[in-house]
Amino acid sequence: AGKEVNRKVNLTAKSAQEVSEAADEKQAELKTLVAAMSVKGDIVEEQRVKLTAELVRWKKLLDLELVNPVMGQGGIIFVFTNIDKENPERQFSCEVAGLENRTYMVANCLPMVPGLESMVEILNRTNDLSGFVVNLRKKFGSAK
Length: 144
Hints:
Elements: H1 2-62, E1 64-67, E2 76-80, E3 92-98, E4 104-110, H2 116-126, H3 129-143
Antiparallel strand pairs: 1-2, 2-3, 3-4
Helix pairs in contact: 2-3
């Protein structure tokens, strides 16, 4: 009976050692993952800072601000300023939504510009969003 107890004690000790080693391995894996996530978080933050700086630069150079519409809606709102020389802070905006079938539509445009429907048709044919934005700014300039 004494040998049986010793054998069970040895098996339990061996089991405890294996569990302890496995726990140490998992702890080391966790530390590696946490370090990797920290690095990824730093990269994401660095990219966010760069993009924010780029957007600020665009706003200064182009008098154009890109705004996300209300949550849950796709698209972007282009907000132009410095179009009306008598009121440079006046905002001209156009909300462009991209639909799933790779077509665009204008949800809101203030003030409304003449020929917007044909501009959207050209945008959908060419997929030239930058050309659309340049044209839109010109149209706002003549619509003020």
